[in-house]
Amino acid sequence: MELLRVENVTKRYAAHTALDDVSLSIPEGSVYGLLGPNGAGKTTLIRIINRITAPDAGRVFLGGRELRPDDIYRIGYLPEERGLYKKMRVGEQAVYFARLKGLSRREAVVRLRVWFEKFGIMPWWDKKVAELSKGMAQKVQFIVTVLHRPQLLIFDEPFSGFDPINANLLKDEILELSRGGATVIFSTHNMASVEEICDHITLINKSRNILTGRVEEIRHAHGDNIYRIDFAGDKAALEADLTGRCQLLPLDEESQLYSSLVVRLASRDDVRGVLARVNERVEVRNFREVIPSMNDIFINAVNGKL
What we know:
Shape: elongated
Strand order of the largest sheet: 6-7-8-3-9-10
Helix content: 25-40%
Structural class: alpha/beta
Number of domains: 2
Order of helices and strands: EEEHEEEHHHEHEHEEHEHEEHEH
Number of strands: 14
Mean pLDDT: 92
Strand content: 25-35%
Largest sheet: 6 strands, mixed
Distance between the termini: 30 Å
CATH superfamily of the largest domain: P-loop containing nucleotide triphosphate hydrolases
Radius of gyration: 24 Å
CATH topology of the largest domain: Rossmann fold
Oligomer: single chain
């Protein structure tokens, strides 16, 4: 079931077109990666979804109806540009932001204490924001983003500035929110994070949507019939036997336990025949397709090489 639909959205700033007829559909309960190089139009699209700015053309639908002003209470947005009032106390500021999202003071305090304990920042409740480290300040902003339990969560580079331990903590919380029914839009340049937590992606480049789909389907669709073979036996004899049947490719890394080859087949139909040939020559330990990473796909798509 679809939660958010962007329909033929265009946005211009003077002579610059930030978004050019962009459409996408975000399934309910998904973790949806919004990808693209700097200046591609991702942040403009996020601002339109948040009603910070309006499109020049096109429409946005949330839950089957056109986006309305009061839908901001159904959305949580953590922007890339962080900002807290440095002279306010941490707890006081968190309560202030929670009340802007419609929570009573009492309910805000109850929920905030749970999250502050979970993130290990309860001792900082009565300290001024200026005393927080960058990582702790980002934790506070994450908490106030999710506190009102919105249907749609939008995170723009949420792991920026986090050490690996806290980045992993945040990743786990995002996945838990998704399992709890929230739909997540995740904008990032970190393709490893995309493979870890996203099930769908849209790639925007030069203001247009150039690639959309499920992550695993996209990765498999852009494979190049490349297979890695790990084996025990005579490597030179196997290479000689496969020459002419498939293309031998250089290895990125050697196995420390077995000999290895990487080959490109003319088509998937050749897999059975090549594997049978390999089995005749050596003892096969592993035979697997080499699927391109999202990082490779991102670079190739942006450079027009897909």
